[in-house]
Amino acid sequence: MKVGTDGVLLGSWTPINHNPFSILDIGAGTGIIALMLAQRSHAEQIDALEIDEDAYEQAVENFENSPWGDRLFCFHAGLDEFVEEPEDEYDLIVSNPPFYAEDYKSNSEQRDLARFQDAMPFEELIEAAALLLSENGIFSVIIPHKEEENFLALANEFELYPIKITRVKGTPTSEIKRSLLAFTRNEVSTIEIDELVIETARHQYTAEYIELTKDFYLKM
C-alpha cells in the first residue's frame, strides 16, 4: 500500500516533547505513523491497532523489518474490542482515522460503500482516547478541515482540549484541506494555531514541509 501524505504529516507533526513512554496508533494501516514515532521518540511501548487483515499483516511485517521491532506491536482488532478490556493507559494516542468524505467518489459503488462502512465515527475515536489517555498524555489526529469544528466540540464533551492546531493546504492558493489537532486533558489559555502549505508547484515542496518531514524521506 502506498504511503499517504496524511500519515506522513501526522507522524512528523505529532507533539512528543512530553517524552511519551507508551504510544497507541488507532487504525494503523500499514504502520507508517507508529514507525515514524518509533524513529522520533524513545517510547518503550508502541502499540498499533488495525482491523483490516491485509493491512494488519503488512504492518506486522513492516514492524518486524524495522530497527525498532522490539518496541512495536500490532493488535488485529477493532477499537470497540480493544476498549472493552483496557490494560494500559497511553502517553500518546494518534489516529489518521478512515473517514468518509462526501467529495470522495470513485467509479465503483462497491468501493464507495466500503469506504463509508470503514469510516470510524469520530465520537467512538474520541471516547476511546478519553478512556485510554494518561493524565498528562496527548491525543493527536488528522481529519478533513470541514470536520474540525465538530471534532473540537465532541472532544470538549469528553474533556479533551486542543493545545495545537495546524491547518494544511496543498498549495498557497488552494483551500484548507486537512486539520492536524493535538489535545490534552488540561485546558490551556493559548492554543498554538498555524498553517502549513505543502507545495508551491507540483513536487516543489515548501521549506516548512521539507523541514517537518525531511527525516522520513529518502529523497526530498
TrEMBL record:
Belongs to the methyltransferase superfamily. tRNA (adenine-N(6)-)-methyltransferase family. Gene3D superfamilies: Vaccinia Virus protein VP39. Its main location: cytoplasm. It catalyses: adenosine(37) in tRNA1(Val) + S-adenosyl-L-methionine = N(6)-methyladenosine(37) in tRNA1(Val) + S-adenosyl-L-homocysteine + H(+). It comes from Flavobacterium palustre. This is tRNA1(Val) (adenine(37)-N6)-methyltransferase. Keywords: Cytoplasm, Methyltransferase, S-adenosyl-L-methionine, Transferase, tRNA processing. It is found in: Cytoplasm. Residues 22-158 form the Methyltransferase small domain.
